[in-house]
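Recap from last week: sequence in, structure out.
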Amino acid sequence: MTPGSLVLYKGSPGEEVWEQPYYIKKAGNHMSEFEREWNRWMERHIQVRKGERKQRLLNELGHGEMKFLREIWFPVRRSLDRLHPEYEVKDHQGKPRFLDFAYVSEHVKVGFDVQGYGPHGRDVSRWRFADERKRTAFLLGMGWHLCPFAYDDLEGELDQCRFLLQLVMGRFLGTPSPLDKGVWREKEVLRYFMNHPDPARAKDIADAFSVSAQTARRILLQLRNKQWIEPANASGDKRRIHAYVIHPAAVKFVL
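Predicted structure tokens:
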């Protein structure tokens, strides 16, 4: 199939499955917001991958992974941006380690796995059990935050899974909403900086958090006085500061 064709994802219950790559196809234009986002996201990742990494993407996304995206991730985050499927990390021995999904930004790396009881519990060999422990230790040592989900919970505990995902991602990214006073407000704005690599202006903060431009400028001034953000202009001209970037020390405060 050519890029842009609409084909169903592997393992879609009760629907026709076409050849790879997997896109969602429906009659007419009756596609949901998620289905349009999935097609855009999947096409982008297929186009940039080659060889074994591309084949793994096409072969390994099954029903559990799709359910995680459709029923858990997308209702919480409303976007698949920055989320990478079948993400490869080479360990200290050069062995490829794969995460079902990885959320990667300049400051945060969060890995997600959908794990069935059989292959990860009941039927696991001693070698596989030990190897998974080494995988976990290596990823943690490399700065990854890991968030596994049980396949059975994706079938029967959707609300709890969404809550847990929001809890995990809210720690790093937050959710734009009207701001209250205090430390929580400062952390939410710093999370905004962490999730947006480009310098942020007062207008960006005002738009993201539904506050006035004056309030946004006051928040940025408070953060600058605490040395949690710094001017984006490298010239050092303090008279005209239009945008800021997060200071590395602020990341520890947020996390």
